[in-house]
Amino acid sequence: MSILGLKKKQPKTFKVKVITMDAEMEFSCEVKWKGKDLFDLVCRTVGLRETWFFGLRYTVKDTYAWLKPEKRVLDQEVPKDSPITFHFLAKFFPEKVEEELVQEITQHLFFLQVKKQILDEEIFCSPEASVLLASYAVQAKYGDYDPNFHKPGFLAQDELLPKRVLMQYQMTADMWEEKITAWYAEHRGIARDEAEMEYLKIAQDLEMYGVSYFAITQNKRDTDLLLGVDAQGLHIYSPNSKLNPNKSFPWSDIRNISYSEKEFTIKPLDKKKDVFKFYSSQLRVNKLILQLCIGNHDLFMRRRKVDSIEVQQMKAQAKEEKARKKMERQILAREKQMREEAERAKEEMERRLFQLQDEARLANEALLRSEETADLLAEKAQIAEEEAKLLAHKAAEAEQERQRLEVTAMKTKEEKRLMEQKMREAEQLAVKLVEQSERRLKEADHLKQDLTEAKDAERRAKQKLLEITKTTYPLIAAYSTPPAPPEASDYESASTRLDFKDSDMKRLSMEIERERLEYMEKSKHLQDQLKELKSEIESLKLEEQQQQAGLYGLHSEARGYVQEPVYIPHSNVCTFTSCCYCYLNLITYQAVELCG
User: Fold this and answer.
1) Which of 147, 166, 433, 445 lies at 20 to 30 Å from 228 by C-alpha?
2) pLDDT > 90? residue 45
3) Which InterPro entries match (predicted)?
């Protein structure tokens, strides 16, 4: 057999990657597998029993398609990549999620898909509803709100609101988180499946929930329209409005739907109503529309019939599972409450223990401080006792010194009194000397005046004698007979009178000079006495100041402090005549002036 004659061996398996809303799975499939085989494998892997809501979707060029269960996988227009990628998604949506969704996994997959469609803005949602839905999504993810654990910023990495809502209001991420957390805190006690169900119950009332949109035209020349297929029926929309349909065809009013190439025909149940026709641009889209219409219509009819035994069993099991989980949650809640109470009691006991330990530590520290304080006080008391003894001794010494000083002060006062008496006597003596000096001065003036008058009289007498002599001698010469000479007794009497006056003047001058010398000696002697008295007064003042300072220092030392005595020197210039020192100086000065 030649090599060219050998046929190329075909692989018996191919790789498939299935992406769910929360996981990715890879399978090795046989070449002969149909779409149903792969779909059942995925459902078994996920644990899904409500398979009629879901399908495997893949991308074809610029649109998407659902894997057909009756045809082989490789015979459909699936991508030729390896592995082939499929998305496990909800193909049909229930009318009432609370009644139709039985399994928790079904509910969880719907929750994830609807949440993604809202965040991707495939389903329009108002800002208020977006915040409420986000709070249920946070409750489903994080459980009950705990302010000690859920600190500000714990939602920073979560995508919870559509971008359109975030751009609509000028609010920061922290402000949005605060609003979501306010709602989230009110959902305390709601389990994850309950929070997801609440999310879906709010989402199913949104206008675009569960609607698949397709671009159509009513005729070949008409403007574009939108066809919406959902669990309720068919709806016709304007291209710019997907919220409010222009026309609706409920499944209960549709008798038949058919298409021929690009033309669709909707025949109402009421034959009197007109048949509605529309056109689609692609044959593949027409097949997809027809497939969705058939599936939604079958589910619509199925809801209005009695549930099958399988569904009844599923609902019973789900009910039992819910009751069991509810009981478990209640038990868990009670245990959690008891644990929280036990933890609070433990924390309270630990806090009380710490408090008691702190109190014991503080008491020990206080005891140690008290012992140290007692020792210190005992030492201080001993020191104070010694100081008291020393002060008592010093007080006794001070008392003795005070008594001695008092005696000395009394002596000083007596001496001072005697000195004052001497000073008064000296003042009186000085006054007498001043009066005597004034009187002697006046007498000296009178004597001087008398002496001057006597000298003037002597001079006039001598002048008259000369004149008489001069007039007498010419007369004697004129007469022949000379005159008789004067008698000796006359000359003697005249000379005697003159001599008497000269001797009196000399004697008086000598007497004045002698008295002046005596007065000067007395004045000098008085000045010396005044100086001695002055020095004695100064020494007495100094001793008195020293005694007062010593007495004050002893009293201060007896009271516990010592102050240096302050010596105030006598002013060099005193304006008071009552000061003994200055008055003696004044008297001395006057005496010197008088004597000098």
Assistant:
1) 166
2) yes
3) Band_41_domain, ERM, ERM_C_dom, ERM_FERM_C, ERM_helical, Ez/rad/moesin-like, FERM/acyl-CoA-bd_prot_sf, FERM_2
